[in-house]
Amino acid sequence: AQSVSQHNHHVILSEAASLELGCNYSYGGTVNLFWYVQYPGQHLQLLLKYFSGDPLVKGIKGFEAEFIKSKFSFNLRKPSVQWSDTAEYFCAVNSGGYQKVTFGTGTKLQVIP
Amino acid sequence: NAGVMQNPRHLVRRRGQEARLRCSPMKGHSHVYWYRQLPEEGLKFMVYLQKENIIDESGMPKERFSAEFPKEGPSILRIQQVVRGDSAAYFCASSPQVNTEAFFGQGTRLTVV
Asked: With contacts defined as CB-CB under 8 Å, which chain B residues touch A42?
């Protein structure tokens, strides 16, 4: 069975600081990888996804993630966070086929102005 | 094209009552997924449906929970004889094809009192 680990449960950063959220998954086969964001009171939105190709994926709002197959990792990065990035971030994986996605437990990011 | 619509947004039920959660997928989407998010946990897959068929219900509790996606109308997640432990946010997602990203609704927050 696949699983996803997010190492940080709560992260507090000042505006303009750089962000890196860790995500590791366990599954030996082909995977699709996702990062979702959930702003307070809103639904999940897709930040970026990796299906195949370039392992460095660019997403919306300046986010990017790098798929490192040898490390089973898909860390999320942003060079300079804004107060509006305050939200909860979920890493997710599915093993191809239909979208039975396994989510991590989420990381709550608080950006202090 | 409206997004995935879930209603109600908030639902309060007394122990022993039934809860019905509705999900209208995006136009043209015939694949529906239900997830449950317990407090302080990530989303957990419950069930995957296509029109009139349950494809994968491996995440559904064996008792009291059922789901359907009829030919006409929304998908329904039904919880009979609710207990306090059923209190959670229930998210629906839909996708147009099998191996494409799923779009999430805003969720229904069920509170059992």
From this structure: 106
CA angle B2, B8, B28 (to 5 degrees): 30
3-state secondary structure of B58: coil
Tell me if A45 sits within 8 A of A35, measured CB to CB. Answer: no
Phi, psi of A85 (to 5 degrees): -85, -5
Residue by residue, what is the 3-state secondary structure of A28-63?
CCCCEEEEEEECCCCCEEEEEEECCCCCEEECHHHC
Distances in Å between the Cα of B91 and the Cα atoms of A41, A44, A74, A80 are 13, 9, 24, 31
- Per-residue pLDDT of B24-45, as tens digits, reads 999 999 999 999 998 777 889 9
Shortest distance, CA B73 to any CA of chain A (angstroms): 22
pLDDT tens digits, A31-63: 889 999 999 878 888 999 998 899 999 999 999
Q: What is the phi/psi pair of residue B102, to 5°?
A: -100, 145
